[in-house]
Amino acid sequence: MEISLRFDKIYNRMEKKMYQKPKGTRDILPDISPKWQKMESVARELAKQFGYAEIRTPMFEDTSLFLRSVGESSDIVSKEMYTFEDKGGRSLTLRPEGTAGVIRAFVENGLYNNALPQKMFYIGSNFRYENPQAGRYREHAQFGAESFGIDTPWGEVEAIDFAITYLKKLGVKEVELHINSIGCPECRAKYNQALKEFAEKYTDKLCEDCKRRAKTNPLRMLDCKNPECQKIYTKAPKLADYLCEDCKTHFAEVQKRLKENGVKFIVDPQLVRGFDYYTKTVFEFTCLNIDGAGKSLAVGGGGRYNNLVEEIGGKPTSCVGFGMGLDRLVMILPEQQPEGVDAYLMNAGSVEIDKIYPVAHKLRDAGLNIECNLINRSFKSQFNFANKINAKYVCILGDEDLKNGVWTVKNLATGEENKVKESELVGVLKK
Ligand code: HAM
Fold first, then answer.
1. Dihedral class, residue 293 (left if φ above 0, else alpha if ψ from -120 to 50, else beta)
2. Tens digit of pLDDT per residue, the chain (431 long)?
3. What is the DSSP string of 324-343?
4. Quick one: which of 127, 63, 137 has its CA closest to 93?
5. Ligand 1 pocket, 301 CB below 6 A?
6. Nearest-CA residue for atom 20 of ligand 1
7. Is any atom of ligand 1 closer than 6 Å to the C-beta of 74?
8. How many A from CA of 237 to the centre of ligand 1?
């Protein structure tokens, strides 16, 4: 009752207006969708080759799932989540990233009882209340991949191999891979203490967010986008000096195996990534010189997270994964040709649409891409339309054709024209 009254108020205030999409969202129009289809089909094809099965999880989850996984002090949770209360009083959040939901599904469905390793991929939207700009949106899509049960450095090697192969297959050039190790909770606790002590010396120079981060989760200070803070952090203690033996050995082994497999990378001590769930290796892919003027763009990132499954109620399971930002990749991808129309079916003279539509149906059944005149257009404008949509052939049914049981088939590229029996249309159009 209360809600419908509220809607009444909105309707009363409404004039006839032009609607605009919500800030930070985009329409993917038909001219650009071939690029999206390409990104999605290559992802599916490679997922099969690398042994990843598809998983689809809800677009929204219990808010506390993200607090526990992504971390309360991360920018994503503290500033960027779309959180709402549903009519049952539950706090729900539009997923800001894909990993947490996949892990929740893995635990809730008891998948850890099945044979390990298991590998899953997903393609879907995420929602973050960020300041929109080119390549940063409030709704963005990711192709993500997560593996369960691989505790050796080969987990990182295969995930990185998968991601690089994906970028290569899409024709993305000049990609730089940055890697780092952020250690396990034990080494990180020591590092956090050192960072906290470091921050105390600069309290008056740090931004308000960093002052808060220094108290709640010092590692998050390194994510700060404020250049003044970043300048200070170049002098901060290095995480590498605080890694325990196990984390150090693991990271050295990751590097050794990457090198052996011809993967180039840069060890980047500043790379910490903005999520609390990572342990040990983190990595990020940056495309260089995307505009020919030196601009670079982070197109994907990921890492190992060995404690998350247990943290949200499952058995301890080592995981590694990555997410590729499709809205960013689409900016780099070369133009893709849409799949063409094999033939456009036209009616001429006194022949009506009811004589051509059933043939369109049959040809589509045979696997052809067919457009058919559905409106009462003149012969000439049907022809113009066939040219506009780049049809390979036009198939015309005029009065004489109808009488003789044939179609006039014209190849629009060569101009060649033939009379073809209806039963032979499929063979001719498939040639
Ligand atoms: P992320 O680095 O936050 O990682 O996102 C992955 C990629 O998504 C980024 O590199 C970027 O290309 C794209 N992206 C992120 N935010 C936006 C935005 N607002 N607009 C456009 N593109 C964006 C994750 O989300 C982790 N879940 C990745 C992962 C999977 N780690 C382990 N498994």
1. alpha
2. 455 556 666 666 666 789 999 999 999 999 999 999 999 999 999 999 999 999 999 999 999 999 999 999 899 999 999 999 999 999 999 999 999 999 999 999 999 899 999 999 999 999 999 999 989 999 999 999 999 999 999 999 999 999 999 999 999 989 999 999 999 999 999 999 999 999 999 989 999 999 999 999 999 999 888 999 999 999 999 999 999 999 999 999 999 999 999 999 999 998 999 999 999 999 999 999 888 888 999 999 999 999 999 999 999 999 999 999 999 999 999 888 888 899 999 999 999 999 999 999 999 999 999 999 999 999 999 999 999 999 999 999 999 999 999 999 999 999 999 999 999 999 999 98
3. EEHHHHHHHSPP-PPPPPSE
4. 63
5. yes
6. 136
7. no
8. 27
